[in-house]
Amino acid sequence: MLTLFERAKTFGERKAISSNNQGYSYDQLIASSNAVASNLLGNSTDLNEGRITFLVPPSFEYTAIQWGIWKAGGIAVPLCVLHPLPSIQYVLEDTQAEMVIAHKDYVSFLKPLEAELGISVVPMEAMFAENNSSLPNLSPDRRAMILYTSGTTSKPKGVVTTHANIEAQITALVEAWEWEKDDYILNILPLHHVHGIINVMSCALWSGACCEFLPKFNDEKVWEIICSGRLTLFMAVPTIYYKLIAFWDDANEEEKKKMSEAASKLRLMVSGSAALPVPVLEKWRSISGQTLLERYGMTEIGMGLSNSYRGERRPGHVGLPLPTVEMRLVDADNNSVGENEPGEFQIKGPSVFKEYWQKPDATEKAFTEDGWFITGDIGMLNDGLYKILGRDSVDIIKSGGYKISALEIEDVMRKHDFISDCAVVGLPDEEWGEVIAACIVPSNEGLNTEELSAWLKTQLPGYKIPRKYIKISELPRNVLGKVTKNEVKKLFETK
């Protein structure tokens, strides 16, 4: 991680970032981040792991502020530009931050918190005033960043990573996905999350490559950038691929041909942060000739497993452990399970986080006695590659003595001609423990749930067929596009 800054010096005038229709070199990034660090330090010599929060859209300025916090010895806490004020307040209170650096668009939005929390809202521009003081020496085991879990099942927890953790997360991906200095990537992912910060931005900057920011997703603009021919890699969440497919479907034949040809020339396209429905993978492959590379990761570990860059990318699977990552698949007693047997993923290695911020009990519960991180994700080894069956708490339904993967049922349901999307959950039931319930986004008003159940019986065993259905125009999702299953369960309570 500290090597990140040393490497940047060797890339000099190469373009590091494209932001707001302007290019910035590595030298400019170094100079700007040094100014930020100096202004943060003021009269002190080291921030000594002080938490510095910042609410800045994806941009050159975002990157320079994050680097500046690190260089000054602080812990960077990026905030989500899409979150409401109570969510922002939760992070500020939890980290006990004394300062939030704000882009001009968010200064008035944050002002109410100044009096309430005694926090300083500092305009972003003040951080870039010319200043050049000596910066502290940092050890790799210093805390560097706090990212918050998506909170799909409980209150978000602050995941603390050190400089060494972050460097391990970056280098594993650079090696596995063969990043080079001539690479060019578009970043359309939220920058309060490991996917956008590590997989896209930091891997590019480690490699001497260029990261272009698009602060807000726009399907037409993304296709325009793909068609420009400047990209070599593209990474997104399944929802984005779904939207890009819809845009392609609506285009005329000439435009379709142009888009398909441009997409086919990228060297790598990746999908992550949520399970990629197999029909979306297959449709994207038919459009672009690209088999999306799926990988598996968490805020706590960075990326853990990945399908092969050069070898097989099997739909519905997440491949094998990345370099330096150790993984085991175990039962409830932490005994290893065999091939085609479901078990929990447990991870070890230098990329695994240090702790949950000020939650020693939660940190202790997150690890086994012999130091394995307990992911809570259930999967299996299937013919040499791993696949995810779901999260133990939300995607594994325990009904009538069976452990049933909600993701498997969803994959089958999405193959139905009248279903655009769906989410499957388990609802409490006195007789069965849980019953399977499906929330459906229909693509055709003629969808009949009795006929759907009959069709599903030709695809799945009887015990995996939903007992309850509701139809909805859009599934509840968080800012990363992940379906929030607890919100789905609430929908059944109101029906």
Strand arrangement, largest sheet? Answer: 2-1-10-9-11-12-13-14-15
**Largest sheet descriptor:** 9 strands, mixed
What radius of gyration results from the CA coordinates?
23 Å
State the helix count: 16
Write down how many β-strands occur, each being a DSSP E stretch of 2 or more residues. Answer: 25
* Percent of residues in helices: 25-40%
By CATH reckoning, the class of the domain at 2-138 would read Alpha Beta
- Shape by Cα distribution: globular
**Beta-strand content:** 25-35%
List keywords for this structure.
495 residues, alpha/beta, Rossmann fold, GMP Synthetase, Chain A, domain 3, 4-stranded parallel sheet, 16 helices, 25 strands, 33% helix, 26% strand, globular
Q: Can you describe what's shown?
A:
- This protein is α/β, with parallel strands linked by helices and 495 residues long.
- Among the domains are: 2-138, Rossmann fold (3-Layer(aba) Sandwich); 396-494, GMP Synthetase, Chain A, domain 3 (2-Layer Sandwich).
- Helices cover 33% and strands 26% of the residues.
- The chain has 16 helices and 25 strands.
- It has a nine-stranded mixed beta sheet.
- β21 and β22 form a beta hairpin.
- α7 packs across α8, α9 (219-228) packs across α10 and α10 packs across α12.
- The longest helix is centred in the N-terminal third of the chain and has 16 residues, at 26-41.
- The chain starts with a helix and ends with a helix.
- One of its GO terms (biological process) is fatty acid metabolic process.
- Keywords: Ligase.
- This is Long-chain fatty acid--CoA ligase.
- InterPro entries: AMP-bd_C (IPR025110), AMP-bd_C_sf (IPR045851), AMP-binding_CS (IPR020845), AMP-dep_synth/lig_dom (IPR000873), ANL_N_sf (IPR042099).
- GO terms for molecular function: medium-chain fatty acid-CoA ligase activity.
